[in-house]
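To: structure desk
From: M.T.
Subject: fold request, one chain
Message: Could you run this one when you get a chance? Sequence is below, nothing fancy, just the single chain.
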Amino acid sequence: MFIHVMKSKLHRVRVTQAELHYVGSITIDEDLMDAANLIENEKVQIVNNNNGERIETYVIKGERGSGTICLNGAAARKAQVGDIVIIIAYGLMTTEEAKTHKPALVFPDQNNKLVK
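Reply: Done. Structure tokens follow.
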């Protein structure tokens, strides 16, 4: 049996843009994607701490080092610039694999920059 387990998490990033007239997705700074082990087109869940919204979409690469977190298309209706969100990706694995799995957890600063 396979179960869904958290694979990656960008914790408390700030929305920098919301582009309604765009093909839907979330644009994420490529540095943040690398740190969280996210790949382009991967399905993610976005949890908005400001309004409680939870949505699913897919990732597209943003400019490296920009701090970009941009909700595109219909997702732009679910957050405002400045909102704090958590971005989570899940993986399928066996229960045995899940017991030893260590997710990639990333806690950027208030400007969506990696803390070293």
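Reply (cont.): The domain at 10-89 is CATH 2.40.40.20 (Barwin-like endoglucanases). Let me know if you need anything else for the meeting.
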